[in-house]
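Hi R.,

Here's the chain you asked about this morning:
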Amino acid sequence: MKLSWLPAFLLVLALDAMGGLTRFVEADERPNVVVFLSDDQGYGDFSCNGNQDLLTPNIDGLARDGALVENFYVCPVCSPTRAEFLTGRYHPRGGVFSTSAGGERLDLDETTIAQAFQSAGYATAAFGKWHNGMQAPYHPNSRGFDEFYGFCSGHWGHYFAPMLERNGTLVRGNGFVIDDFTDHAIKFIEDHRDEPFFVYLPYNTPHSPMQVPDKYWNKFADKELTQLPSGSKGNKNNDKDLNHTRAALAMCENIDHNVGRVLAKLDDLNLAENTIVVYFCDNGPNGPRYNAGLKGRKGSTDEGGVRSPLFVRWSSHIEAGTKVNLVTGAIDLFPTLTDLCGIETEEKVDHPFDGLSFSLELQGAKVKRVPRNLFSHWNGKISVRTQQHRLDHNQVLYDMTTDPGQQTSVENLPEIKQELIAAVEQWRREVLSELDRSPRPFPVGHPSLKTTQLPARDAQATGKIKRSNRFPNCSYYLNWVDINDTISWPVDVVEPGKYKVDLYYCCAEQNLGTTIELALGDKSVSRRITVANDSPLIGAEEDRSVRSESLVKDFKPVEMGVIELVQGPGQLELRTTEIPGKESIEFRLLLLTRIE
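And the predicted structure, written out as tokens:
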């Protein structure tokens, strides 16, 4: 059902199988929307889902005061879930196949939920982790968000006052990132209280590194956990690896505190009654901790890797304690939220949704639905969930209504199994086949944003140059000891002209005098490094558990000069032409700023 706003009021006629729900909504009282999306928080990381080792009263309150969507599914990892939420379509259709190095970018012919709300007159903002493209026009400011504050990478290396960006301008964060993102969201809500707003809060915790303020960590540092999963090493409370679990729980309580801050602000501004608040997670838990007995965790297409809580509160329209049993997913949120807000999408969306609107169920209607299959995919593995069954990626069938932990396969339903095997193959042919892994250059100088970031994450290095960590997202390059070695990016210059070049580097004093050159075709600019920046490694002191990602450094910018770039594709290459010391610079980022 598609809705549209009438000049004086909106008549929403929702007919269930019995014919019954009618609502009138004033046109000048369009609901606001606040969407929380946490990172690597599992289904079991909430006290309302049975976790006895933490307390999440504010998030639990969303379920109590609104709707609990009991069978809600996302993707096994971060960027695909974000893509499906943004588009209402399965992530392979949007070209998202990786979590870094360009594979996380959402195809430019996809319409985002932010663009739909923006075109309907909403003030739109995102605060946190984007993870669907860094360079414009993949950047959030190019995808429907008026305001963006956070980082575009897949993960970040330090959570206390790190380098972040505001609408393309690099800035220093203020305090712990989740508190900081929430501060900005609250300020945006205050500034736009008199107009409808769409606020997206994609938090980046409890993703590692496991950093959290003392206030939260101290509660868990020596806590005996009562629900140790069988997958935890040694299954003992004195096992040092349990610090990862303890830190994750502490981070979840910090998230809950910040959700409470936003809800309190909505109350203070008298906006709560007419604000839709949504909370969900991007995948299963990032460690072997309590997950309500579900099989699998992050990275898995089993239930524990893709089942997320979904809480939706809209006090004036959704009855407290509503439960929606329909199998739903991240692909359904775009059509559902636009329906609830009366936004017509047929002329705004370039491609048909894979998702469906369950706005009627949220408002209490009993809707007779055609049975659906919901697919989960990652790295070629596909599982499918129906209202009753799951066929896993090994073609093993489970009855999820009696066996949510996928302990015992169903052997007496061969017809259902064959139907689902056929459905998976059809999905593989019709959806997964749309995934194009062809190399895509990184755009430079798109007119929607004045700056272009080219981080080490997206670059390729030759020779002896090493990446600081095998996970590219927040990494940097070091061991630049040979003038024949290079760092480069395949680029496509969208708008030709002159660009100021800032180089973010570290360099020990004994290595000063090294010269760096940036070239594209026959155009180049060079700079001799004369100021030392010998930053120590940052992050280990704040880590509550040994990290797998790169530690970071305090990389400082130096202005290299101005380079003139011609329109079109090419290879942007960073070279060192002189190494008087033991090595050249350590490299983190290029920032290109178009000169008007």
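Residues 1-25 have pLDDT under 50 and may be disordered.

Let me know if you need anything else.
M.
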